[in-house]
Design brief:
The protein is of the alpha/beta class. The protein has helices spanning 103-109, 134-137, 144-153, 173-184, and strands at 3-5, 8-10, 12-15, 34-39, 49-53, 61-63, 84-85, 88-92, 100-101, 119-123, 141-142, 159-162, 189-192, 205-212, 220-229. Strands 3, 6, 7, 8, 10, 12, 13, 14 and 15 form a 9-stranded mixed sheet that branches. Strands 1-2 form a two-stranded antiparallel ribbon. Strands 4-5 form a two-stranded antiparallel sheet. α3 (144-153) packs parallel to α4. It is globular, with a radius of gyration of 18 Å.
Length: 230
């Protein structure tokens, strides 16, 4: 909703990242989020604190180039403003479980690509699986041809975001590794396991901010992402 106050226009911001919890799904079922009380007021401690443990690629997170490229950039090497995207777009590329999004599917879903886009979101259909084991076991992914189509049609792209647990479908892991390398070697970061259903139907994205934990030499990191909509 846009609220008009005098001459100023206030747009709505929505969360595009999921809350991290012990039930957060992990790719391949490998790893979990552990949130354990360390100090507790109820126990007589002076404050409440938590101990955290988790893989760096779990929940809403970003893959930096170093994830697949040995000398690629790590999450801590980007300037602050490189996590702000001023021309995001959303493509509904919904497919069935365990199906790859290829170049033909993208061409049908986006017949007139916006070549100014700096962040491309793909709705894959995976959101309806979240909460079950099928989210990681039978999630859709992006084919190598799909990755090449994105590279060819969005010359200003700096990041790709998906609502699936990974760009790589667990049912097609070799193809997923190819797609990862094609994008990451060009410096295109990958935001995975996002909450794209939070974008209201009929609205458009104005700006997106996706901030990772600044892990030293991190090949990826959990991310907090918000989107401004109109």
């Amino acid at each position: 909703m846009i609220v008009q106050r005098g001459t100023a226009v206030r747009r709505q911001w929505v969360w595009l990242s999921h809350v991290l919890s012990p039930s957060t799904p992990a790719y391949g079922g490998d790893g979990r989020v552990s949130i354990m009380p360390a100090k507790q007021l109820a126990r007589g401690d002076s404050a409440n604190t938590l101990d955290l443990a988790m893989p760096n690629h779990i929940g809403s997170h970003v893959d930096a180039p170093r994830h697949f490229i040995a000398d690629g950039a790590s999450v801590d090497q980007y300037p602050a403003d490189d996590w702000i995207f001023e021309h995001p777009i959303l493509i509904d590329a919904t497919v069935s479980p365990a199906v790859l999004i290829d170049a033909d599917r993208l061409a049908r879903a986006c017949p007139s690509p916006d070549r100014a886009a700096d962040l491309v979101f793909l709705q894959t259909g995976a959101a309806r699986l979240r909460g079950s084991e099928d989210f990681w076991r039978a999630g859709p992914g992006v084919a190598g041809s799909g990755a090449r189509w994105i590279i060819d049609h969005f010359p200003k792209i700096r990041a790709l975001g998906l609502d699936s647990i990974s760009l790589s479908s667990f049912a097609h892991r070799a193809e997923g590794r190819t797609a990862h390398r094609l994008l990451l070697e060009r410096g295109i970061r990958l935001f995975e396991d996002l909450d794209l259903a939070a974008i209201p139907a009929g609205s458009s994205l104005v700006r997106v901010i996706g901030l990772p934990l600044r892990l030293q030499d991190g090949d990826g990191a959990p991310v907090t992402m918000i989107g401004e909509i109109a």
